[in-house]
């Protein structure tokens, strides 16, 4: 008899494993996959690590490859809307019945492993094994775009042998686990590099992480294609939010870049994800597509690439949710993310009817912020707090969430107290803040991706 009858039961069981915390190492994953007849050996992976930009880069790649007619699996974390977001096939979440099927296969193995010397697999290990089993036995994609969870070297996703390895950017995040210097963090991220497998990286030549990546790649005899060395991108059109001309019309978001490498040049590539950092993410994806064409005979026409890039969506990354006032969600949960968000606020223009453009930075800005433990709060707030006319510090349902009061104390280092408000619960914060916003104001909800997920789900129900 099946252990789980519904997806809700299966998901509750998986979430129950979270109490086991983070247990670095690959031995449990290797044991699980051997028991499942090693599904990872039958799939083509594009493995992506990095501090920021992993999800956007993965989404660009998956969308373009799917646009070109390839069946594509996309594995990412964390989810923004619902658990099933993490395991996708051709842009759609895993079906509930398929999730139940794979987790019913895996649970007896988890119980068996828990009784042995390795101990129970973690939540992330189980989800990763479920994805591999689903891709091998049910959906059978031609490519799997495969995002790491944390780090790289000891991450549960690092049980595969990819056809391409990607390292987006490297910054200070998860320092309690990955190390307290860029070099130490780079060593962990570079752990996804495999012998002879080409590497694309958004780490520039002058980045302190580069010598580490270079050393590891040379030891593995892996060819590296490097940002600002082997491929480049320039912003052609500034990031713009176009307000609808009439009720019922959707808001538009767009910017465009020029991409070039030794072999290709693409002018006016339209991107629906805003911010200068998306220039880098898109360029890394475009270089990976080049490598797929050159090394693996992937058929990609220029028109297809352009259409795929333009269609790409990635929830919670400078995502415009509503107008009047303008409400934007952005998961700036670490120092590099906060820096990118601050820069994007400076760059974005709002296009009104009649083609009048107003810089976003000139509008009255309210920031609603929450974070989880383990994040460098000051590193985020020092970039974002001074930009706010009003900063709301709050908390949410995750057991790891910082108290709003603690966030407020940190915020007071960077912003005058009269511009800071503290609410223990974000619903109360929203209820109190919304009436104070005019139609011309901007409200940015930011911080933990788990917080963004919670707010986004609620907002979608209000629209």
Structure, explained:
This protein is of the alpha/beta class and about 475 residues long. Strand 10 (about 250-260) and strand 11 form a beta hairpin. It has helices spanning about 5-15, 25-35, 55-65, 95-115, 125-140, 175-180, 180-190, 210-220, 275-295, 300-310, 335-345, 375-385, 405-410, 425-435, 450-460, and strands spanning about 45-50, 70-75, 85-90, 90-95, 145, 165, 200, 225, 230-240, 250-260, 265-270, 320, 325-330, 350, 355-360, 365-370, 390-395, 420-425, 440-445. The strands form 3 sheets. An 8-stranded mixed sheet has the order 4-3-2-5-1-6-7-8, sandwiched between helices. It has a 6-stranded mixed sheet with strand order 12-13-19-16-17-18. Strands 11-10-9-14-15 form a 5-stranded mixed sheet. It folds into 2 domains: about 5-235 and about 245-310, Mur-like, catalytic domain (UDP-N-acetylmuramoyl-L-alanine:D-glutamate ligase, 3-Layer(aba) Sandwich); about 320-345 and about 360-460, Protein-Tyrosine Phosphatase, Chain A (Alpha-Beta Complex), CATH 3.90.190.
